[in-house]
Amino acid sequence: MNSVLVVGGGGREHAICVALAKSPKVDKLYCLPGNAGIAEIAECAPVSATDLEGVLAFVKSHPDIGMTVVAPDDPLAMGMVDMLEENGFRAFGPRKNAAIIEASKAFSKKLMKKYGIPTADYREFDDHAEACEYVKSAKYPLVVKADGLALGKGVVICNTVEEALAALEEMMVDKKFKSAGNVVVIEEFLTGKEVSVLAFTDGKTIVPMVSSQDHKRAHDNDEGANTGGMGTFSPSKAYTPDIAKETEEKIILPTMRAMNAEGRTFKGVLYFGLMLTAEGVKVLEYNARFGDPETQVVLPRLKSDLYEIFDAVIDERLEDIRIEWDDEAAVCVIMASGGYPGSYRKGVPIEIGALDPDITIYHAGTARDAEGRLVTSGGRVLGVTAKGKDIDEARAKAYANVGRIKFDGAFWRTDIGIKK
Ligand code: AMP
Ligand code: GLY
């Protein structure tokens, strides 16, 4: 018996589980901690994704587990893959020394500078007074970023000196993101279209997936606070074959090689957050994992067996396999709890009406209450993914079904996929 354990419990992990469940090579799925949707296809247990010892104990006590997929950033940065491998278990995801490409923006900016990978100009500061001095004479807008992991919320675009000083105060003095703000990166503001490109890599070969685009602001027209992501579509029309080629040559391959040269071989999914600027493609950020909610539009388009891809990455034989995608477009609309990304209620009952058969609901923050009812348990609650011959068709289908799902306080953006 060959079982796979997925670590994490959001929409991304649900999409990974749905894709793995299709593999004839996977007999059973486990997910820690999972959520109410994942529990329909995987055995879940209340072990937190950041509980390294708990995950190790779970793997040790389930000898049928042949592979563990570590999906979220925190356990990767904490070294969960290293720990599993040191104990003789197969794991998919980068080791700690490679996950730093996401976990430290100061590291990734230095890497790009050293290896000539195009990105915004920047300065790095560990001293609050020096950072304040710098922003008083810098060009605006500029972008202040906490060095460490901050749930996608440690980036502030500043139009004035006052805004920059306030961002620095929050990060470096008030420690809003704890130690993640001990160091800050202050960078040039780039303009252009944003595209996300995820890639499978075993350190020898790197295979980009189909492109996608996230919508990070909470409200329509990119207004409101930055969130973990309110909706996605795939593919991005702006990411033309020419731009894809330029990106592979100037960014994707050089990044894999740079990590090898640094003795930090990256194995897993490397995520390139790109800005298509007038001067060419530039890197906004790297992530050491599948994006959320990018995964909810990318994996539904995968025709190949995801388990086989993970297996090939672990064994460093990615070069030998073919990875195929369908030509359809996909749109995912996130339904969130009122108040997100600020504070919100949990435990609100969710009613899912009759949906079209080709719609996929990816659960993010959902749980079952004591009576077994489906309730909210997080900020991003559900992702509604539809496919179609183009983005417009997929969009119309997704929104028609969003209207049939109800919970008190639910909100969503109504413009996902409009600015394709
Ligand atoms: P990050 O977490 O670094 O991707 O930043 C979150 C969001 O902030 C990005 O998706 C962009 O929309 C925006 N952003 C980050 N860096 C820059 C930059 N240098 N110029 C313009 N926008 C940026
Ligand atoms: N959707 C952005 C991220 O996963 O970081």
Principal-axis shape equals globular
From the helix content, strand content and strand pairing, which structural class follows? alpha+beta
Largest sheet: number of strands, sense, barrel closure: 5 strands, parallel
Number of strands: 24
Oligomer: single chain
Strand order of the largest sheet: 3-2-1-4-5
Helix content: 25-40%
Strand residues, percent: 25-35%
Mean pLDDT: 96
Write a structural description:
This protein has helices at residues 11-21, 52-60, 73-78, 80-86, 96-103, 105-114, 128-136, 161-173, 241-261, 295-298, 306-314, 391-402, and strands spanning 3-8, 28-33, 43-44, 65-70, 91-92, 122-125, 142-146, 155-158, 184-188, 193-201, 206-208, 213-214, 217-219, 223-226, 231-234, 268-277, 280-287, 329-336, 350-352, 360-363, 366-368, 374-376, 380-388, 405-407. It is of the alpha+beta class. The strands form seven sheets. It has a five-stranded parallel beta sheet with strand order 3-2-1-4-5. Strands 12-15-18-23-20 form a five-stranded antiparallel beta sheet. Strands 6-9-7-8 form a four-stranded antiparallel beta sheet, with helices on both faces. Strand 16 (268-277) and strand 17 (280-287) form a beta hairpin. Helix 7 (128-136) packs antiparallel against helix 8. It is globular. Residues 120, 143, 145, 152, 155, 157, 187-190, 194, 216, 273, 284-285 line the site of adenosine monophosphate (AMP).
